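Budget justification aside, the reviewers requested a transparent look at the raw inputs and outputs of the sequence design task funded under Objective 1. We therefore reproduce one unedited record. The lines immediately below are the structure tokens for a 361-residue chain.
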């Protein structure tokens, strides 16, 4: 069966992550998948404007190109991965498609939906497969929450809170510059908003967003977005880069219980009600008085459970991509779903600028 050669434009952190995944089967923290890399696919070569990254590529045994043009003209290359700063995604993707290559693009696909539409049109004109690497659809913490919702483990869900907190500000590279598509909405919002769209069925009625500029005045270094769905469910998405005490990665509230997941660890718990008939409580004494409303439930009315375990394999992204090239499958990360996410991020910026909720769907 055909072996596919992939070349990387932009061998930075994520570009090299793809190399490690494809050629070595390396994942997080040096961990390697059983079975190694991705069969029938290899990273053959790369180009980067940084001489140090060119030297790094040579050390790793890659064919090093002197320019993107040279890379795109190489008939040995079947697939091009674009892993450049965000503002260069559109021109490189279109050039690669016009050169007759299939293309994988790092997220965010583009700086806006109009740019992304031109990239889609170029893929149709070229008759080549174009996909966006929305890799966090394979995060196991996200898939755990998705399973809790699908299995109705907490009854009717009325609120989901999704947070990513750090304390180092924005990295001191292109991510801090607006001309390169920097800022946390495009860097992390593209992930957690996409997860919201994937896990919740239904349309979003309202989007209300606020952006922060605690450590950077040029681009947003954090945000809070509240999505209100047509069924009344509220999804709170929050990213902060100046949080020295992190809140849970996930907090899910349902009529019959709650669930919490810490960061990306997968650690957490579910607490469900077991007896609605015993709803009375003995008041508890606080510093300045009594409260019955906030008294904890007694143990015989609730049950603590472990989170469901969901395993995933990010190599499936590329396995699917190859299957799409060969006409055996449809894209798991459909371009329509990416477009919806692009438009949602645009609604976030509109709401933040307006200082008020905006309609979405």
């Amino acid at each position: 069966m055909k072996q596919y050669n992939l070349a990387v434009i932009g061998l930075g952190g994520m570009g090299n992550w793809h190399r490690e995944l494809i050629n070595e089967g390396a994942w997080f923290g040096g961990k390697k998948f059983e079975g190694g890399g991705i069969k029938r696919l290899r990273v053959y070569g790369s180009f980067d404007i940084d001489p140090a990254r060119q030297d790094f590529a040579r050390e790793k045994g890659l064919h090093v190109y002197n320019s993107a043009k040279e890379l795109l003209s190489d008939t040995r290359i079947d697939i091009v991965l674009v892993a450049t700063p965000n503002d260069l995604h559109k021109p490189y993707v279109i050039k690669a498609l016009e050169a007759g290559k299939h293309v994988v693009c790092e997220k965010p696909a583009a700086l806006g939906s109009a740019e992304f539409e031109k990239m889609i049109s170029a893929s149709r004109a070229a008759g080549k497969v174009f996909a966006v690497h929305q890799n966090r659809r394979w995060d196991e913490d996200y898939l755990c929450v998705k399973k809790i919702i699908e299995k109705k483990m907490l009854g009717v869900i009325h609120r989901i809170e999704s947070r990513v907190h750090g304390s180092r500000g924005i990295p001191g590279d292109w991510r801090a510059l607006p001309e390169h598509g920097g800022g946390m909405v495009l860097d992390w919002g593209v992930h957690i908003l996409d997860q919201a769209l994937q896990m919740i069925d239904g349309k979003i009625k309202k989007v209300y967003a606020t952006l922060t500029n605690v450590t950077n005045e040029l681009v947003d270094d954090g945000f809070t977005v509240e999505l209100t769905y047509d069924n009344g469910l509220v999804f709170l998405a929050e990213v902060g880069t100046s949080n020295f005490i992190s809140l849970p990665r996930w907090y899910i509230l349902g009529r019959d219980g709650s669930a919490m997941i810490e960061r990306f660890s997968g650690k957490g718990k579910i607490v469900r009600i077991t007896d609605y008939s015993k709803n009375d409580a003995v008041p508890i004494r606080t510093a300045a008085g009594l409260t019955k409303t906030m008294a904890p439930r007694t143990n015989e009315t609730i049950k603590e459970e472990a989170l469901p375990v969901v395993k995933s394999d990010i190599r499936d992204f590329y396995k699917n991509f190859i299957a799409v090239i060969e006409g055996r499958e449809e894209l798991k990360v459909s371009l329509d779903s990416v477009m919806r996410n692009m438009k949602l991020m645009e609604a976030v910026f509109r709401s933040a600028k307006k200082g008020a909720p905006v309609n979405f769907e």
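The chain has a mean pLDDT of 95. The first helix runs from residue 13 to 24. Computational costs for records of this kind are itemized in the attached budget.
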